[in-house]
Amino acid sequence: MYHYSxxxxxxxxxxxxxxxxxxxxxxxxxxxxxYVNSCSGLFVLALSPYNIVLWNPTIRESRxxxxxxxxxxxxxxxxxxxxxxxxxxSKDDYKIVRLGLIYHPDGHDVQIFSTKxxxxxxxxxxxxxxxxxxxxxVADGIVYMIINEPPDNKFILSLCLKNENFEEILxxxxxxxxxxxxxxxxxxxxxxxxxxxxxxxxxxxxxVWRMKKNGTMSYSWSKVLAITxxxxxxxxxxxxxxxxxxxxxxxxxxxxxxxxxxxxFYDPKTQKFExxxxxxxxxxxxxxxxxxxxxxxISPNAL
Length: 303
What we know:
By secondary structure, the chain is an all-beta fold. It has helices at residues 176-179, 239-242; strands at 3-5, 18-20, 35-39, 42-48, 51-56, 61-65, 78-85, 94-101, 108-114, 119-126, 131-139, 142-149, 153-160, 166-169, 183-187, 190-200, 203-213, 219-230, 243-248, 254-258, 262-267, 272-275. The strands form 6 sheets. A 4-stranded antiparallel sheet has the order 3-4-5-6, with no helix packed on it. It has a 4-stranded antiparallel sheet with strand order 7-8-9-10, with no helix packed on it. A 4-stranded antiparallel sheet has the order 11-12-13-14, with no helix packed on it. Strand 4 and strand 5 (51-56) form a beta hairpin. Residues 235-241 have low confidence and may be disordered.
């Protein structure tokens, strides 16, 4: 597995990428799939359920995170991770949220790691009927995730890193936004979701909706973007997974990841798409994950 860095504002034909050197981890620690999440230029790499690293690729420093609390002595079928920053009033604490899906009557365990205390704690459990769709995203100290609950219930669940409480995000008449297969992401600290629909002649309608918190338990959603995205017809079944916004530019442009190894740039002035060719990214590469981050000099060992 390789890690690359690309300066997003210079997405031109002559753009090149930098190959990052990841933390040195013994091969025996790898669990076959790496989970990646980022916050403020720091990355959490979960190499296996019990091998987790906090990494700053800019200054090439990393910190081995202690193993999470063992629950029931069983292995999780899948684990999700979120990395967030608690407010200054909480002594500038970076926290890792870990949700372990385990089919046990007691439910799925939720743990939080504090870089200040250098320890994990179990904050609660989610019902065993809950299934997570997509990845966790973090905005302004709050972790968000999409929950599927049989037979047909779906909602967004939030977790505040400061008070460590869960809360359901209500849609107030716009449940159509969540009943498809949306993707959560953040733009300028705001929670957004994408919605794909209406494939006609290899073109799909793509919408971006932004959430606004009006009060303690009141939320509203507004559509901030609606464009048409080119999607190969044979890829439609995977469209909502493999066509994802990667970065929103200051001039309104959007960088998309399409399929396994394609980058598309949407120009709002011409309202057209252009495939991005970048030297150093071979066509044979499979993009496991693409994240936007701002470089920082924060050392994970100084937190």
